[in-house]
Automatic annotation (TrEMBL):
It holds the Pfam family FAA_hydrolase. GO terms for biological process: homogentisate catabolic process; L-phenylalanine catabolic process; L-tyrosine catabolic process. It comes from Leptothrix cholodnii (strain ATCC 51168 / LMG 8142 / SP-6) (Leptothrix discophora (strain SP-6)). One of its GO terms (molecular function) is fumarylacetoacetase activity. Its cofactor is Mg(2+); Ca(2+). Residues 137-433 form the Fumarylacetoacetase-like C-terminal domain. This is fumarylacetoacetase. It comes from the Bacteria. Its EC number is 3.7.1.2. The active site is at residue 145. Residues 29-130 form the Fumarylacetoacetase N-terminal domain. Gene3D superfamilies: Fumarylacetoacetase, N-terminal domain, Fumarylacetoacetase-like, C-terminal domain.
Length: 438
């Protein structure tokens, strides 16, 4: 595979023992970025890289000026309280920093002593949203999600005829994007109950999650300068987990004709770690469309995209209710799927978003859209799993669920495995629903 280099070598091991455990999300082949500080302090937030159960504090490391050239410039940028500066630098600088960190963290590294002084245990850290997100666009890249949810909202025509030709998205809101671990109150909204003569206002009754990936944009493009498929991946800094919490009752009433509005802008949760696109290279897979579906239009097509434009990122959703927590019951897995089923690749999303000259800026965020796989067990939202609330799920401990109940915690997880590669993970994205505040 063209994108593999020495930082992906399965034989690499770190002098940090926890990074060599077979089930760690953060082996030396991963090296994802976050913004963090020591929990409970008023230290400044700064960039960090995960290695095993530790964080390399990039501000502390940058103060030692251990690297030269592009790696040094990238390290100084990553020391800041947001990763926008690092994202702006582009793939050559990202790769140089990754290689320098990989060398510093390997067995027999000459800089072990220096890096050891910059470690903070992950268990002692709190995280921030890793970039100042100027604009957030949520896509709709799972044809299975589009079909399943379409059945609820538009039984006559679940999959609209544009779906297979144009990547559909809506402009989301960045102000309410938070980082894993946050709780949020059940939103209030305006809803039209079935058969009612007029809408009601009150706490949302059909609160849902959406299993998504977040895609952070790198250098961006000038207004009026579309990004071609050949250039598109150099715009992708990395991926994280994203939960697009959704009020289905508000959505069903408000979404026509301009799309979701208040049903989706009250909370969006990200996992703290951004796994770089470079780290994901061993997990690329061919982009394939079901037989009989149209090929993408030429501006959304390229040989490289066909060969390896998709990513096999395994994804899981766990739910734990308040009762389950109180009884010591573990979170229950509701869904397992993979990003490989997506109908559009990250490169196609970048190219489509910029085809009209729209400019992307460093730190902009795309949501992949809800990532449902082909079977119902792979559905990325409760509206699909419970068939619009008609078929409740039974939780461990006997509770039944159609939509989320106050006290429910939802955890998204992601990881990658492939023959001949070391497993890497995206960590977790956790959020908890609180009662409505009045
Ligand atoms: O089919 C619809 O009308 C809307 C679907 C969505 O929930 C929008 C959305 O957030 C896109 C997605 O997550 O795939
Ligand atoms: Ca969504
Ligand atoms: Mg949202």
């Amino acid at each position: 595979m063209a994108h593999l280099n020495e930082t992906h070598a399965p034989s690499l091991r770190s002098w940090i023992d926890s990074a060599n455990a077979h089930d760690t999300d953060f082996p030396i082949q991963n090296l994802p970025f976050a913004v963090f500080r020591r929990d409970g302090t008023d230290e400044p937030f700064r960039g960090g890289v995960a290695i095993g159960d530790q964080i390399v504090d990039l501000a502390a490391l940058a103060a030692e000026r251990p690297f030269t050239g592009d790696a040094s410039v990238a390290l100084q940028a990553a020391a800041s309280d947001s990763l926008n500066g690092l994202m702006a630098l582009g793939p050559t600088a990202w790769s140089a920093l990754r290689l320098a960190l990989s060398k510093a963290l390997r067995m027999q590294s000459a800089s072990r002593g220096l890096v050891e002084a910059c470690l903070v245990p992950q268990a002692a850290a709190e995280f921030a949203v890793p970039a100042r997100i100027g604009d957030y666009t949520d896509f709709y890249t799972s044809v299975h999600h589009a079909t399943n949810i379409g059945r609820q909202f538009r039984p006559d025509q679940p999959l609209l005829p544009n779906y297979k030709w144009v990547p559909i998205g809506y402009h989301g809101r960045s102000s309410s994007i938070g980082v894993s671990g946050l709780s949020f109150p059940r939103p209030i909204g305006q809803m039209m109950r079935p058969g009612a003569p007029s809408p009601v206002v009150g706490p949302c009754e059909r609160l849902d999650y959406e299993l998504e990936l977040g895609i952070f944009i790198g250098p961006g493009n000038a207004t009026g300068r579309p990004v071609s498929m050949d250039e598109a991946e150099s715009q992708v800094f990395g991926l994280c987990l994203l939960n697009d919490w959704s009020s289905r009752d508000v959505q069903g009433w408000e979404y026509q004709p301009l799309g979701p509005f208040l049903s989706k802008n009250f909370a969006t949760t990200l996992s703290p770690w951004i796994v770089t696109f470079e780290a994901l290279a061993p997990f690329r897979v061919p982009f394939v469309r079901p037989a009989g579906d149209p090929d993408p239009l030429p501006y959304l097509d390229s040989p490289a995209n066909r060969a390896e434009g998709a990513l096999d990122i395994r994804l899981e959703v766990d739910l734990q209710s308040r009762l389950m927590r109180e009884r010591g019951l573990s979170p229950q897995c509701l869904t397992s799927t993979s990003y490989r089923h997506a109908y559009w690749t990250p490169a196609q999303l970048v190219t489509h978003h910029t085809m009209n000259g729209c400019n992307l800026r460093p730190g902009d965020l795309f949501g992949s859209g809800t990532l449902s796989g082909p079977t119902l067990q792979e559905a990325g939202a409760l509206i699909e799993l419970t068939v619009g609330g008609q078929q409740p799920l039974t939780l461990a401990g006997g509770e039944s669920r159609t939509y989320l109940v106050d006290g429910d915690s939802v955890t998204l997880r992601g990881w990658c495995e492939a023959p001949g590669a070391v497993r890497i993970g995206l960590g977790a994205c956790i959020g908890t629903v609180l009662p409505t505040t009045s």
